[in-house]
Design a protein that fits this description.
The complex is a heterodimer of chains A (about 140) and B (about 110). Chain A contains 3 helices and 5 strands. In chain A, strands 1-2-3-5-4 form a 5-stranded antiparallel sheet, covered by helices on one side. Chain A has about 140 residues and is α+β, with helices and mostly antiparallel strands. By secondary structure, chain B is an alpha/beta fold. Chain B has helices at about 25-40, 55-70, 85-90, 105-110; strands at about 1-10, 10-20, 45-55, 75-80, 100. The chains are: A alpha+beta (about 140), B alpha/beta (about 110).
Chain lengths: ~140, ~110
């Protein structure tokens, strides 16, 4: 299936840059014609993925970047968020819905991403780091 | 995020307006709750009516506020949850932890 690459963004590892990513993302989703509910879901999932990349991947190292790509594959919106960290062990993440974790103040980011996107895959980034690829099935983008 | 604190009777109400997200709104929420507790509040109501976005860090701050308050014998409740916020508290199963109300009057009455 042909890919339609809509944007690439390189961000420094600072939390304030999450808002910059959100502005670019929102503009792009508007151009594609994504409805408000889907925009909310994608917005939140990207926010969590970029937060994880800055916080856990790059450990807020200002010399490391977060790379964001958005593309369309048919009716699928595909977002890739890559960090330059040491890699990521999904099995180390505790279940935030387990009774003993319900009142923990953190550990819910991946739950949000899984809930609000249709598919999430993790892979290693060539040269080091983690890539999270998230898909959202769109109900008929306008362009 | 804009935060204002007011009282109705013996209930301290924290009104939140905007995003409760990492690096800004989450810290503002934490500070507001701590200030209210330090000021002697023992009935806390967080009004989420004007909250536009909440991320996992914001949810974490709500949980921290709840545990901090509960550990000190302070009752903390939520009111006026926008649909998106209610959805997120449902996803995280925290909707079963918090006392939530659709109206401020009902929430105030529940403290009595």
């Amino acid at each position: 299936m042909p890919e339609d690459h809509r944007f690439h963004l390189d961000l420094g590892s600072r939390f304030e840059n999450i808002e910059l990513a959100q502005v670019v993302l929102r503009d792009t989703l508007d151009q594609i014609g994504v409805d408000e509910d889907a925009r909310h879901d994608v917005d939140l999932a990207v926010r969590e993925a970029v937060t994880n990349a800055i916080k856990h991947g790059n450990e807020q190292n200002p010399d490391k970047q977060v790379h964001i790509d958005l593309l369309l594959e048919g009716d699928d919106l595909v977002l890739q968020i890559a960090d330059e960290g040491a890699g990521f062990d999904l099995s180390s993440v505790q279940d935030p819905l387990a009774p003993e974790n319900i009142l923990r103040p953190n550990g819910r980011g991946i739950l949000f991403m899984r809930k609000f996107m249709d598919d999430i895959q993790y892979s290693l980034r060539p040269g080091g780091g983690t890539v999270v690829t998230m898909r959202k099935r769109l109900a008929g983008p306008k362009s | 995020m804009r935060v204002t604190t007011r009282t109705r009777g013996d209930v301290t109400i924290i009104d939140l307006n905007g995003k409760i997200t990492i690096g800004s709104g989450d810290i503002a929420l934490r500070n507001a709750v701590h200030q209210a507790i330090e000021a002697g509040a023992n009935k806390l109501l967080i009004n989420l009516h004007e909250v536009t976005t909440i991320d996992s860090s914001g949810v974490g701050e709500l949980v921290s506020a709840y545990t901090t308050a509960t550990n000190r014998g302070i009752r903390l409740k939520l009111v006026n949850l926008p649909d998106k916020v209610a959805d997120i508290l449902t996803v995280t199963q925290l909707i079963t932890v918090f006392d939530t109300y659709d109206s401020e009057n009902d929430a105030i009455a529940s403290f009595q």
